[in-house]
Amino acid sequence: MSRQVFLYDPPDRFVAGTVGLPGRRTFFLQASAAGRVTSVALEKTQVAALAERIDELLDEVVRRTGGNAPVPAMAPPEISDSAPLDAPVEEEFRVGTMALAWDGDEQRMIVEAQALVELDADTEEDLAEAEERLLQDEENGPPMLRVRLSGAQARAFAKRALDVVNAGRPPCPLCSLPLDPEGHVCPRQNGYRRGA
């Protein structure tokens, strides 16, 4: 079976968002253009890492080009997007591997999210070899979302993604673990329940 690639070059909209209540949220990347929408599920930590790496890569592009790349220092407010995910949110796949690149010729950020795949291997060498084969297989690999963004779109995506990650449950002031509405057992309080 051939690889399914969901390509958005460029998307009308590319955002990170959630479905559910804080503490039980499911995180999604969602791209849309010309009446089609693709949503892929991923972990909160993946969203945070993606946003941080996008900002780091854009900062490096600006540094290496001496400020000549069309990349704003901050997310432009005129393209900020705080709207909810487009409904219905239908998961195409769960993300396993993500990749970022900067296309210097086209002045575009490339974001790839590849489906999670279980690999069978007996040794570490076999596992590394299987992973490499999987990544190199453009024709028969797992499904992939590929999005090409301008520097401004990438900055706006990263800002929203970090805002979404930080919009969850507030941290406990003592142990930094998330507080549920009914409180939590705080290790710094020797297990006593601490209210929100």
Mean pLDDT: 87
Broad shape? globular
* Number of continuous helical runs: 3
Side by side, the strands of the main sheet go 1-7-6-5-4-3-2
- Indicate the radius of gyration in whole angstroms: 19 Å
Which stretches are low in confidence, meaning pLDDT under 50 for 5 or more residues running?
Answer: none
Write down the secondary-structure element order: EEEEHEEHEHEE
The level of helicity is 25-40%
- Give the distance, in angstroms, between the N- and C-terminal Cα atoms: 51 Å
Strand percentage lies at 25-35%
Structural class: alpha+beta
Main pleated-sheet profile? 7 strands, mixed
Number of strands: 9
Word description of this protein:
With 196 residues, the protein is an alpha+beta fold. The chain is built from three helices and nine strands, in the order E-E-E-E-H-E-E-H-E-H-E-E. The protein has helices at residues 44-64, 124-136, 151-166; strands at 5-8, 13-19, 26-33, 36-42, 91-103, 108-115, 144-149, 184-185, 193-194. The strands form two sheets. A seven-stranded mixed beta sheet has the order 1-7-6-5-4-3-2. The longest helix has 21 residues, at 44-64. It is globular and about 55 Å long. 23% of the residues are buried.
